[in-house]
Amino acid sequence: MSVERADAGPELLLKGGHVVDPGNGLNAPLDVAVAGGKVVRVGPNLPTADAAKVIDVTGYYVTPGVIDMHAHVATSHRRSHLPVPPELHTFTCCVTTVADAGTVGWKDFLAFKEEVIDRSKIRIFAYVNIVGQGMVGAPEQDVGEMSPRLAAAIALEYPDVVVGIKAAHYWTREPFDDAHPIWASVDRAVEAGELCHKPVMVDFWPRPPERPYPDLILKHLRPGDIHTHVFAQQFPVLDERGKVSEFMYGARERGVIFDLGHGAGSFWFRNAVPAIQQGFVPDSISTDLHTGSINGPVFDMLTCMNKMLNMGVPLEDVIARSTVAPAREIGHPDLGTLSVGSDADVAVLKLETGSFPYVDCGRAKLIGHRQLRCALTLRAGQIVYNRDGLGLPEWQDAPDPYWWDPGQKRSTRPQSRVE
Ligand SMILES: [Zn+2]
Q1: Per residue in 393-403, is it b (16+ CB within 10 Å) or e — as a string?
Q2: Residues with CB under 5 A from ligand 1 (ion)
Q3: Dihedrals φ, ψ of 86, to 5°?
Q4: What are the pLDDT digits (tens) for 272-323?
Q5: Ligand 1 center to residue 261 CA distance, Å?
Q6: CA distance readout (Å), 375 to 96, 320, 349, 384, 391
Q7: Separation of 378 CA from ligand 1 center, angstroms?
């Protein structure tokens, strides 16, 4: 049957849009054809005659589905106050892949996989927390909870789902001694990363002179490891003259990755705008979406992308840093593109102009003039969000409404119902 389907033409044709697919170097008016949940063709003026369904997306951008590589969606972990349902504020932003950034550690991973990851329509990856109990407060300060061997074992057991190891929320307090080493969370996470050959994502609070930020990115992290929350207030991204600090470039040269990880407290325009104006743009854009950030100042992934756009990052670059770049960082370079044969995770976006305020974590705002808005989201070829009713008829042209048949005690759906 599937061969017949393919021979018969695409199941869905997105027609007339402007494709931005940085992974394939595409930025042009192109159509996208989908069948069997995969992208089957991208090209100019694709024929409509053999397509089962054609959606006119004239005036819209068509991009790969967005990847948010730092969120908290492990709702199975009831002792953590952070997680939000994975399909909340994601499909509405054209997000089709999300990575949970260490809400759970090795002790609770299996429940997360079975109760959330395996049951969700959105694709979910996970960073395993180096702390066995994950993000639950006090145990995050307990070095005895940090097991490189057990965290790595989970990563090796579930290589398709685990994308790295997370270290976070290790504040350190006096005294620093063998029971409470000041670099414990970072170094143990890196040790786990070595054991499972995965990158480490670090949420960090510097504490000079014993634990200065440059040491994190120049000495402790390895190439491919990720510092998330790059524009938080506590990082000396800018030197006293307001210039991007030399060690930021030094770390980037070493291959350390800088991720936005907006969060409830980790994005300040006062760091971000000068850095971006000087050309220092985070390698990837991510939300750190959780219960404490979802009602602001994060809101969602598109708001984070729009902040980048309105600080002067070109549109194509914003898309790249939300698709193909995070795909690479999480070790899945097959994702984040519209390559033929890949899962048809597709974003249809509208670029609007006007006056749009964006707020940061430092009680400041930036008034922007452009806004990307998600109009339609495809996940593996299925429409999971259709804000603009694309492909639907206007109501006057719609088929008869559902008919309630009292004799049959059931309603019948019109044959020509369009999803
Ligand atoms: Zn986080």
Answers
A1: eeeeeeeeeee
A2: 101, 288
A3: -65, -20
A4: 999 999 999 999 999 999 999 999 999 999 999 999 999 999 999 999 999 9
A5: 7
A6: 14, 19, 5, 11, 11
A7: 26
